[in-house]
TrEMBL record:
Molecular functions per Gene Ontology: ATP binding; glutamate 5-kinase activity; RNA binding
Coiled-coil features, chain-numbered ranges: none
InterPro entries in the record: AceGlu_kinase-like_sf, Asp/Glu/Uridylate_kinase, G5K_ProB, Glu/AcGlu_kinase, Glu_5kinase, Glu_5kinase/COase_Synthase, Glutamate_5-kinase_CS, PUA
Purpose: Catalyzes the transfer of a phosphate group to glutamate to form L-glutamate 5-phosphate.
The protein, known as: Glutamate 5-kinase
Residues binding ATP: 24, 182-183, 224-230
GO cellular component term of the entry, any: cytosol
SUPFAM superfamilies according to UniProt: Carbamate kinase-like (SSF53633), PUA domain-like (SSF88697)
Gene3D superfamilies, sorted: Acetylglutamate kinase-like, PUA domain
Classification of source organism: Bacteria, Bacillati, Actinomycetota, Actinomycetes, Micrococcales
Length: 386
């Protein structure tokens, strides 16, 4: 996945040059206390149709299934427990998709329901499948409507918010920009309910966010991550060469026309694999291996695989295949990786050379502890200390 196609979009004024856009819309913009808001859907769909008419492919990431299931199930408010959220999502998903299907049909456009789990973006085979299927849908002129597969995800491996999912989808599909639509018109210097808060028009680097105060979810009470996950999502996108815009659903048309609305997050980094982004930023690590100085240099500087000989300690309980942290002797996390051995197997292997391990335990113990391709090195400033 190393292809490096330059992004034709350089700012708001060139957004019309985007070849591919991911548009994410939040629950609060799509639903009312009595279910799906048909007018809001028609308005979004009309905007998407206009963008597609100018030759831009669009992938829609739509939340709202849990919110859409609240009223039909007589729940009153957003359920808190996972099982009821899953039940509400299963009911709401059908209702939401029926509205999208009817609304896009007004433009003669087919839609496809694509339900993804976090696993689908981190496991190689699923990742390739998702990539291929979504690209095929776009080639067939279909609008994929993506959501997290709420009904089957477990608490452990769940995005829980579609903001970060949409950033990973933008990355997976090499989109040029990500539009995050919510119930507030921009990122503000503080929660917009505070009279002194001011709109932030541009975010060029992380330092622009240093003094921003980010509050909880909006007043509708159906959103999930609030502004925090939108800013996270924008960071994931921009860090991999994709511009991001946060604005309200009402401003979608103006934002896509390049007008000065919302908050524009300028792309900075180079494109990365979704798997690498997940591992580096999102994965919940199950444990830690402690490296001696030589191993830190080999893994971080020379980009080698981690061998048992350079490990001095193992912390936490993990299985082979789990994500773990790689820390130096003073507890600074220098990398994250998928580990090839469990926390019960590893202690007997520490400090031993590959040849010894093969002779003593068998040829399957020749594998590195973390292969270099399964390892994401953390930038110095992002490294957490113990
Ligand atoms: N600094 C901030 N700037 C803008 N909005 C903020 C800020 N802090 C908190 N918010 C809240 O985040 C809410 C949007 O998040 P959320 O409710 O999860 O929406 P969605 O359902 O669209 O994902 C806004 O309604 C706003 O009240
Ligand atoms: N998958 C969930 C989405 C949760 C979510 O991210 O909600 P939101 O904060 O409104 O974008 C649903 O469809 O209800």
């Amino acid at each position: 996945m190393a292809e490096q196609v330059p992004n034709p979009v350089t700012g708001r004024d060139t957004l019309h040059l985007a070849r591919r856009l991911v548009i994410k819309i939040g629950s609060s913009s799509l639903t009312t206390p009595t279910g799906v808001n048909r007018e809001a859907i028609d308005s979004l769909v009309d905007t998407i149709a206009a963008v597609r008419a100018r030759g831009t492919e669009v992938i829609l990431v739509s939340s709202g299934t849990i919110a859409a299931g609240i009223h039909p199930l007589g729940l009153g408010k957003r359920p808190r427990d996972l099982a009821t959220q899953q039940a509400a999502a299963a009911v709401g998903q059908g209702k939401l998709l029926a509205e999208y299907t009817a609304s896009f049909a007004r433009h003669g456009t087919e839609v496809a329901q694509v339900l993804l789990t976090a696993e689908d973006l981190i496991r190689r085979t699923q990742y390739t499948n998702a990539h291929r299927a979504l690209n095929r849908l776009l080639a067939l002129s279909v609008v994929p409507i993506v959501n997290e597969n709420d009904t089957v995800t477990t608490a452990e491996i769940r995005f829980g918010d579609n903001d970060r999912l949409s950033a990973l989808v933008a990355n997976l599909l090499r989109a040029d920009a990500l539009l995050l639509l919510t119930d507030v018109d921009a990122l503000y210097t503080a929660p917009p309910s505070r009279p002194s808060s001011e709109r932030i028009a541009h975010v060029v680097s992380k330092a622009d966010l240093d003094t921003v105060q980010i509050g909880r979810t909006g007043p509708a009470g159906v959103g999930t991550g609030g502004m925090v996950t939108k800013v996270d999502a924008a960071g994931i996108a921009t860090g991999s060469g994709i511009h991001a815009i946060v604005t309200s659903a009402q401003n979608a048309e103006a934002a896509l026309a390049g007008e000065d609305v919302g908050t524009w997050f300028q792309a900075s980094g180079r494109r990365q694999s979704a798997r690498g982004i997940w591992l580096g930023l999102l994965a919940e690590v199950q444990g830690r291996v402690v490296l001696d100085d030589g191993a830190v240099a080999a893994v971080v500087k020379n980009r080698r695989s981690l061998l048992p000989a350079g490990i001095t300690g193992v912390e936490g309980a993990f299985e082979a295949g789990d994500p773990v942290e790689l820390a130096d002797a003073v507890g600074t996390v220098v990398a994250r990786g998928f580990v090839n051995y469990s926390s019960t197997e590893l202690p007997a292997m520490l400090g031993r050379h590959t040849v010894q391990l093969r002779e003593e335990f068998g040829p399957e113990y020749q594998r590195p502890v973390v292969h270099t391709d399964d390892c994401v090195r953390l930038p110095t400033r992002a490294r957490p200390r113990r």
